[in-house]
Amino acid sequence: DMEEFLAKAEQILHTSLLIFDSLGNLLISKKTRDILPMFVQEELIHGLYTGSLNGHFQIACGKNVYYFQMEIMDIPNGGTFSLLLLQTEESEAGTDLLPIQRISNILALEIKNTSALNQIRRQNEYRFITEWLHGKMGSAFQICVSAESFGLRLSENADYRIVIVDVCEKDAEDLFIPRELHIVRHILQQFSQIATFLIQDGSLFLILNVPETDDEEELHRMLLDLGGKLQHILGRGPFNFCISQPCKVQDMPFAYEIALNISHISRACGIEGPFITSDQLYELSILSLLPRNAVVKDFVDRLLGPLERYDQRHTSNLLDTLSVYLSCGNNTKMTAEQLHVHYNSVVYRLDRIRSLLHVDLSDSEVCFQLRLALKIRIVQASN
């Protein structure tokens, strides 16, 4: 156990040790964790992750100032790790590194072994979570027993929910990535309501314990607090929180599908929450259940196909114009303002749309069908 090893090393060296390994994991003894406020640990991780810390540095927390000395050390046969020593104000000038250098090989080997074991454990835990969420784990009893082997205490009688944390920005570099797993884990361990998590397809999936008194405001406060910490340490955000309804352990595949559906639809439609549930998506959730068959495809293509093909040939924006026009309640002036184009440009585009589709845009039934086709197109593209 790395915590016990660090505790013994601290007794020998008479100073607190912290290690930031190549996987982004902050290794720390229980005694040192109790000494350091969570804010200081977060600032350490942020600085180490961004590479802004080196040599001697200090972190202020209220009236207290914490002094650190950092050394970069090699792991035999590949890799490095950052060794941090927590110092008092009197020892700010530096700590004698000779005793540390004497045990450096043992320390490096222990870190290497711990990192390898953690990686295997996490792979097995990831496999368990994915099989659980895909309905491959059997009964509630079997799920709870399997969870025990990973230190997850699940109950057959308790309720759980899934929250998918999506980065609102669409750039690939703004997504969650697997190498941040340990940093995310360190942040999440502050929140007792979070049972476990995984990073998948650029999103962060949280499995939350649902308290007996399920307080929506308390849930939102917790998620906002979490979002703030993720944004500060990882440097990205804001976030959407796609929230499923509470379910029993054996029904979590259903909660998983609901949360995924909310995530797909909100991304495709550009919906920003920060808190999004299936109740808020109304007809979009229902439309997502439509099969992708020839009847549905023909309905969408008959109404929107001429505009799509015209836009492709002429690099125009008739389809977007129609969508904005209908969302603005068929108001031409509002449509021009939303699209940031001249009023006469919108008038011209609407005339072209009427001509291509052979429809009357003042007919409420026609507009209903067009809105329906647009929403089906977006939802099916997201799936």
Q: What's a concise summary of this model?
A:
This protein has helices at 2-13, 30-35, 38-50, 98-102, 104-133, 140-148, 181-188, 216-234, 252-269, 278-281, 283-287, 294-314, 318-327, 332-339, 343-357, 364-382; strands at residues 16-20, 26-28, 56-61, 64-74, 80-87, 159-167, 194-200, 203-210, 239-243, 275-276.
Topology summary:
Blueprint: H1 2-13, E1 16-20, E2 26-28, H2 30-35, H3 38-50, E3 56-61, E4 64-74, E5 80-87, H4 98-102, H5 104-133, H6 140-148, E6 159-167, H7 181-188, E7 194-200, E8 203-210, H8 216-234, E9 239-243, H9 252-269, E10 275-276, H10 278-281, H11 283-287, H12 294-314, H13 318-327, H14 332-339, H15 343-357, H16 364-382
Helix pairs in contact: 3-8, 9-16, 12-16, 13-15, 14-15
As laid out across the biggest beta sheet, the strand order is 2-1-5-4-3
End-to-end distance: 44 Å
Uncertain residue segments: none
Largest sheet: 5 strands, antiparallel
